[in-house]
Design brief:
Elements: H1 7-28, H2 46-53, H3 72-83, H4 94-100, H5 105-116, H6 128-140, H7 151-154, H8 173-185, H9 195-200, H10 205-217
Helix pairs in contact: 3-4, 3-5, 6-10, 8-10
């Protein structure tokens, strides 16, 4: 015969059930619903980036790019290319080469993840007429000159395509224009299959300025 609990013990168990359930709620919280991913902590290496790119990746200096919201893999690739400046796929910049000298592959990956998670503040086009010209080229390209639409790789809203093409939305017009000119002159050669070089050589100075203005106003 199975032992039977005394009435007093049963009564005590019933009273204890609500308290037991209350104690279990925190442990069970979040089950059945997707928990919001935690924002990545700032890597120690951000201390060397903040002076030029801002603590949160939103640069106050037009000549230095915004990193907030940028594609993580793109940031890591650029840092790697700066470190490999002497290689065929390297990217030369005396300041950045010095900055990345002590960074490990793990540091560069962590920086990419951190800045990609930061909210970009965005910008506005300061020259409306020029931005309208840029929009036509961005969205439709120029078939006669063999210039493809920028939207095809960088997306219509400039958000880019993760792991392939960078975000250009809200980027400083001065920085974007400088990079297009560097591609055009062959000074920058770290783009896959020289794609940007082949496109940039077909752009006039006005095209460059127009595209930079339009991209700056995208969000």
């Amino acid at each position: 015969m199975k032992p039977v609990l005394p009435i007093a013990a049963l009564f005590g168990l019933v009273l204890a059930l609500p308290a037991m359930a209350a104690e279990q709620k925190p442990a069970d919280a979040g089950k059945g619903a997707a928990a919001a991913p935690a924002a990545p902590a700032a890597p120690a290496a951000t201390a060397i980036c903040a002076g030029c790119h801002g603590a949160d990746g939103n640069s106050a200096i037009p000549q230095n790019p915004n990193l907030a919201g940028q594609v993580a893999q793109y940031i890591t690739k650029q840092l790697t290319n700066f470190k490999d400046a002497d290689k065929a796929t390297g990217r030369k910049n005396a300041i950045m080469q010095g900055m990345v000298a002590t960074l490990s592959p793990e540091d560069m990956k962590a920086l990419g993840v951190y800045y990609a998670a930061q909210p970009p503040k965005g910008g506005i086009a300061t020259d409306k007429a020029l931005a309208e010209k840029g929009e036509r080229l961005w969205r439709g390209g120029d078939a006669q000159r063999g210039i493809p639409a920028c939207a095809g790789c960088h997306s219509p809203n400039g958000a880019g395509i993760p792991a392939q093409y960078p975000r250009l939305a809200g980027q400083h017009a001065e920085y974007t224009a400088a990079q297009l000119k560097a591609f055009r002159a062959g000074e920058r050669q770290n783009d896959p299959n020289r794609m940007m070089q082949m496109i940039a050589v077909k752009l006039t100075d006005q095209d460059v300025a127009a595209l930079a203005q339009y991209a700056q106003g995208l969000r």
